[in-house]
From TrEMBL, chain A:
Catalytic activity: a quinone + NADH + 5 H(+)(in) = a quinol + NAD(+) + 4 H(+)(out)
Cellular compartments annotated: Cell membrane; Endomembrane system; Membrane
Keyword Cell membrane attributed: yes
Keywords (A to Z) from UniProt: Cell membrane, Membrane, NAD, Oxidoreductase, Quinone, Translocase, Transmembrane, Transmembrane helix, Transport, Ubiquinone
Annotated protein name in UniProt: NADH-quinone oxidoreductase subunit N
InterPro entries, per database record: NADH-Q_OxRdtase_suN/2 (IPR010096), ND/Mrp_TM (IPR001750)
A GO-annotated cellular component: endomembrane system
Family that this chain belongs to: Belongs to the complex I subunit 2 family.
Classification lineage: Bacteria, Pseudomonadati, Pseudomonadota, Alphaproteobacteria, Sphingomonadales
EC number, as in UniProt: 7.1.1.-
Protein function: NDH-1 shuttles electrons from NADH, via FMN and iron-sulfur (Fe-S) centers, to quinones in the respiratory chain. The immediate electron acceptor for the enzyme in this species is believed to be ubiquinone. Couples the redox reaction to proton translocation (for every two electrons transferred, four hydrogen ions are translocated across the cytoplasmic membrane), and thus conserves the redox energy in a proton gradient.
Claim: Ion transport is one of the keywords in the record: no
UniProtKB/TrEMBL annotation, chain B:
Primary location: membrane
Domain named NADH:ubiquinone oxidoreductase chain 4 N-terminal: residues: 62-119
Origin species: Qipengyuania aquimaris
Family: Belongs to the complex I subunit 4 family.
Record keyword Chloroplast present: no
NCBIfam families named in the record: NDH_I_M (TIGR01972), PRK05846.1-3 (NF004499), PRK05846.1-5 (NF004501)
GO molecular function: NADH dehydrogenase (ubiquinone) activity; NADH dehydrogenase activity; ubiquinone binding
Domain NADH:quinone oxidoreductase/Mrp antiporter transmembrane: 125-410
NAD listed as a keyword: yes
Keywords, ordered alphabetically: Membrane, NAD, Oxidoreductase, Translocase, Transmembrane, Transmembrane helix
EC number: 1.6.5.11
Compartment annotation: Endomembrane system; Membrane
Identification of the protein by name: NADH-quinone oxidoreductase subunit M
Annotated TM spans: 6-24, 31-50, 70-96, 108-125, 131-149, 161-180, 200-218, 230-255, 267-288, 295-316, 322-344, 365-386, 398-421, 442-460
């Protein structure tokens, strides 16, 4: 494998890294007024990476770069595209929020770029060391992003909490990795799989459990979810939107690849962990959200809840299940970004956020278009047909039923009714209650465009995408199973 | 490729619903009325062109638009009748909301038109998951209708409605996934012929039962209904009672019975038991209600129990009777809610004691109300008589005890309906404001007269309605024949006596031998 080919396959990461470094220098030598231009440049770079990444789908599928450290296959292309799309959306809606608070700096876009590089490495890593490098690059930029509003106590608190708990999770992963390495003698995914297929000892099982526990932390699955509500609430809203979308996609993709490739032969060993995490996430995510007044906190619990459904697809441990995970993730990204953009648009003339249920009471009379968009998003998150969110749940439950895990599917779907309670509470507050808070101010066109696109995808029209989405996701999940 | 009339029937209200969202109150009302009348015309066209005794599935359309399921529509006689019921009640609902809904009219009309799309979709869907999508989607507009335009306690009622019915139906989705995995198709007509393993049928039946029993609603999961009915605006109650409750019965007749015949037979005792409790208990509860809408809501539960016993009689009379009760109840309970709405619009209370002697100042109203009261009781010549008689005749063959209990329920039905009528329409005019209420106006005439005509038509010449369904019910009965229960009241053919009764045994020897 020549270097040229390796560089070509990792072109998106290299391009983004160069763009990030150049923009970093640019922010250092220009005034803060250049922040908007830098954000636009970063968005352009991400668009370029997205297009380059999609073009790889035509020729470079299934190729390993740098002697088997990174793999470019249909799976990584799928996950990376989602990550880039989510990052672009978050960058587009961010400037207004930070400008309102006088916190807008070019570094924000730069950190997002580095984060995107890290996530790209995470989803295509096929070696434990590369995985860790990608994970840390992404996590470290995330810690800084969480405390980006550094004069705000809550934001600093969020950053600190995220850093300490994230560091702990990284440590757990590293410990697991060292155990896995110790019992298999290699860090390459294929090597680990071959070694484990030959002999899977208790020590190796511990390694697997530790790695999965650390990854569960990164995807915010119960019982490693405690940081999520605090961090989501404290971090600036565009950053929360980002946390709930792109890094979640990357972490789930990384978890899926890890479960399917190196630990693919030991599905029985990790399946029960995933089943527990899935059901616990659904129930805790649903119950925890019921008492919340703060909308960001509510959406944090909603994301925990959604991770539970995603993990049901993984628990099936079949190609159909992983394809379901990818379909769910794609729909989830649009639902989450749409919801958070709607939250960003809920601000008064002075720029204060309308952050609680009381603030958005009667929204359907003061801002009907926004209220209808939120209604669609909430019913979609609740998985009520004909909105597209139903399809995500449908495919993961179908995979679980096909894998003969009917009890899991039945309990999971029954618990989803608990979650429906707070989604319809959202609708109740907006539509049934009388207005009492301040009216939201006019939102910029960019926000409307992002929100409109998200709502269009999750509207019933989204079902027209199912044949295409299904075949792409199937190809992506097949890539993992052929590699194994 | 024939003309896609079913798709057109879905498209017309959908387009109108989107249009209504952007229109002001006056034009939204006109658009909604026009769209529903147009759909009614399409429905009549559908009925005229339906070939009785022709192919089982007619007006079939199919397009592979989605992954995992297809856009497949088609109707048999049963679906045709229920679609007719929906399109018939819809313009009346729009008229009923003409003056009483004043806030957010465009959104209201949009929600109703969306309801119409979903109801037609449910009855026309020939794909299992397409059915589920239409079936579940109905929650969203109904939740909004109750929550935004409902009465004082609307929020509690809307939550209860939403969560109750959602919990009922999610388990059905898992069962559907299993069925599709097992049978390898999502096509409803194929699945209706598929023989699922007998031990799996039990679980599948229970999962479907959870959904349909809540929709129906059967005792003891009926408690959402009185709340939802009472709090919903008049037209919302009409749609709930008229069509949405029929989704449960339709589900039994389309899914539970033909797809899981063995489980249906094994668990028929459960259905009978719940239905018997429902008939007696809800009738007694209805008797003591102070609120008119609540009374009619409880009476719906009792009527639906007649439907379920008829369905699980597994014979032609029972099935036909159940369908006729569904159609008749759709008309009559809808009309009764409209009658309540008419006086509610004038006095803004549903309390029975606030009215009295209305036949003096509102004679025309009292006449209509009397007709629908009698129809609800099941007086011969009205729609409900035909259905109840057939359903009870069907169940009589299976169990005389169930028939006894259910018939008692009908007597109780007469008691609570006549008692209601007496308190509202007869007697002294105790309340001055009630005594001043004007009689029906032209709009209210236009709402009630067509239903009255349909009720009488169905009572006098039910053949028009039974004919399209006859073949489908015969098919269903043939499917159920292998598991049909013994008739406990069937005549048993004994062994004939060898001789006539007055025969004197001769072989004892000749007289006086000893």
């Amino acid at each position: 494998m020549s270097y040229a080919n390796s560089l070509y396959l990792t072109g998106a990461e290299i391009g983004l890294s160069i763009a990030g470094l150049v923009l970093l220098l640019a922010t250092a030598w220009t005034t803060r007024s250049s922040a908007r231009a830098i954000t636009i440049a970063a968005v352009t770079a991400l668009f370029g990476a997205l297009i380059f990444n999609l073009s790889l789908a035509n020729d470079g599928v299934g190729a390993a770069a740098f002697g088997g450290l990174l793999e470019v296959d249909a799976f990584s292309i799928f996950a990376k595209s989602l990550v880039y799309i989510a990052t672009i959306a978050c960058l587009i809606v961010a400037p207004r929020y930070f400008e309102d608070r006088g916190q807008f700096r070019g570094e924000f876009a730069v950190l997002m770029l580095f984060n995107a590089v890290g996530m790209g490495i995470m989803v295509s890593a096929v070696d434990l060391m590369t995985l860790y490098i990608g994970l840390e690059l992404s996590s470290l930029s995330s810690y800084v992003l969480a405390s980006f509003a550094r004069r705000d106590d809550k934001s600093s608190e969020a950053g600190l909490k995220y850093f300490i708990l994230g560091g702990l999770a990284s440590g757990i992963i590293l410990y697991g990795v060292s155990l896995v390495y110790g019992f298999s003698g290699t860090t390459s995914y294929d090597g680990v799989r071959a070694a484990f297929d030959a002999d899977f000892s208790t020590g190796a099982l511990f390694g697997v459990v530790f790695v999965l526990a650390g990854l569960a932390f990164k995807v915010a699955a119960v019982p490693f979810h405690m940081w999520t509500p605090d961090v989501y609430e404290g971090a600036p809203t565009p950053v929360t939107a980002f946390f709930a979308s792109a890094p979640k996609v990357a972490a789930v993709a990384m978890l899926v690849r890890m479960a399917a490739v190196p630990f693919g032969g030991q599905a029985e060993a990790w399946q029960q962990i995933v089943i527990f995490a899935a059901l616990a996430s659904i129930v805790v995510g649903a119950l925890g959200a019921i008492g919340q007044q703060n909308l960001k906190r509510l959406l944090a619990y909603s994301s925990i809840n959604n991770v539970g459904f995603i993990l049901i697809g993984l628990a099936a441990a079949t190609p159909a299940g992983i394809s379901g995970v990818l379909i769910y993730l794609s729909i989830y990204v649009f639902m989450t970004i749409g919801s958070f953009v709607a939250l960003l648009m809920l601000r008064t003339e002075k720029g204060e956020a309308l952050a609680t249920f009381d603030d958005i009471s009667g929204l359907s009379t003061s801002s009907p278009a926004l209220a209808w968009c939120l209604l669609a998003l909430m019913f979609s998150l609740a998985g009520i047909p004909p909105l597209f969110g139903f399809w995500g749940k449908f495919v993961v439950f179908q995979a679980a039923v096909r894998a003969d895990m009917i009890a899991l599917a039945a309990i999971g779907i029954a618990a989803s009714v608990i979650g429906a309670f707070y989604y319809i509470k959202f609708v109740k507050v907006m539509f049934f209650d009388e207005p009492k808070g301040a009216e939201p101010a006019k939102a910029p066109v960019s926000h409307w465009v992002v929100l409109g696109l998200c709502v269009l995808v999750i509207s019933p029209l989204g079902y027209l995408l199912t044949p295409w989405l299904g075949s792409v996701a199937d190809a992506a999940s097949q890539a993992l199973f052929f590699a194994a | 490729m024939e003309f896609p009339i079913l798709s057109l029937m879905l498209a017309v209200p959908l387009v109108a619903a989107i249009a209504c969202l952007f229109l002001n109150a006056g034009s939204a009302r006109m658009v909604a009325l026009f769209a529903t009348l147009f759909n009614l015309a399409l429905g009549i066209l559908l009925w005229i062109n339906y070939e009785i005794g022709g192919a089982q599935w007619q007006f079939v359309e199919r397009a592979e638009l989605f992954a995992g399921f297809s856009y497949a529509l088609g109707i048999d006689g049963i679906a045709l009748m229920l679609i007719m019921l929906s399109v018939f009640l819809m313009p009346i609902c729009i008229l009923a909301s003409w003056d009483s809904i004043t806030k957010r009219v465009g959104e209201y009309m949009a929600a109703f038109l969306l309801m119409e799309v979903l109801m037609i979709g449910v009855f026309a869907a020939q794909d299992l998951f397409l059915f589920y999508i239409f079936f579940e989607a109905g929650l969203i507009p109904m939740y909004l209708i109750i929550g935004v335009w409902g009465g004082d306690n609307r929020i509690y009622a809307s939550y209860k409605f939403f969560l109750y019915t959602l919990l009922g139906s999610v388990l059905m989705l898992i069962a559907m996934l299993w069925m599709v995995n097992e049978a390898g198709t999502t096509d409803i007509p194929t699945l209706m012929q598929y023989d699922f393993p007998v031990d799996a049928q039990l679980w599948l039946w229970l999962a479907f039962f959870a959904s349909f029993a809540v929709k129906m609603p059967m005792w003891p999961v009926h408690t959402w209904l009185p709340d939802a009915h009472v709090q919903a605006p008049t037209a919302g109650s009409v749609i709930l009672a008229g069509v949405l409750l029929k989704l449960g019965g339709y589900g039994f007749i389309r899914f539970s019975l033909p797809m899981f015949p063995d489980a249906s037979a094994d668990l028929a005792w459960l259905v009978f038991a719940l239905s018997m409790v429902a008939v007696i208990y809800t009738s007694l509860v209805a008797l003591v209600q102070e609120d008119m809408k609540k009374l009619i809501a409880y009476s719906s539960v009792a009527h639906m129990a007649i439907v379920t016993v008829g369905l699980f009689a597994f014979n032609v009379q029972g099935l036909e009777g159940a369908m006729m009760v569904m159609l008749g109840h759709g008309l009559v309970s809808g009309a009764l809610f409209l009658c309540v709405g008419v006086i509610y619009d004038r006095l803004h209370t549903r309390e029975i004691a606030r009215y009295g002697g209305l036949s003096i100042n509102m004679p025309k109203y009292a006449l209509f109300f009397l007709l629908f009261t009698m129809a609800s009781i099941g007086l011969p010549g009205t729609s409900n008589f035909v259905g109840e008689f057939l359903a009870l005749a069907g169940i009589y063959k299976v169990s005389t005890f169930v028939t006894l209990v259910c018939t008692t329920g009908i007597i109780l039905g007469a008691a609570y309906m006549l008692y209601l009528y007496r308190r509202v329409a007869f007697g002294e005019q105790v309340n001055a404001d009630a005594a001043r209420m004007p009689d029906l106006n032209a709009r209210e005439w236009a709402m009630l007269a067509p239903i009255a005509a349909a009720v009488l038509w169905m009572g006098v010449y039910p053949e028009s309605f039974l004919a399209p369904m006859r073949q489908d019910i015969a098919t269903l009965e043939a499917r159920l024949a292998s598991v049909a229960p013994e008739y406990d009241s069937a005549l048993t053919v004994g062994t004939p006596d060898e001789h006539a009764a007055n025969y004197i045994a001769a072989e004892h020897g000749s007289e006086g031998e000893h």
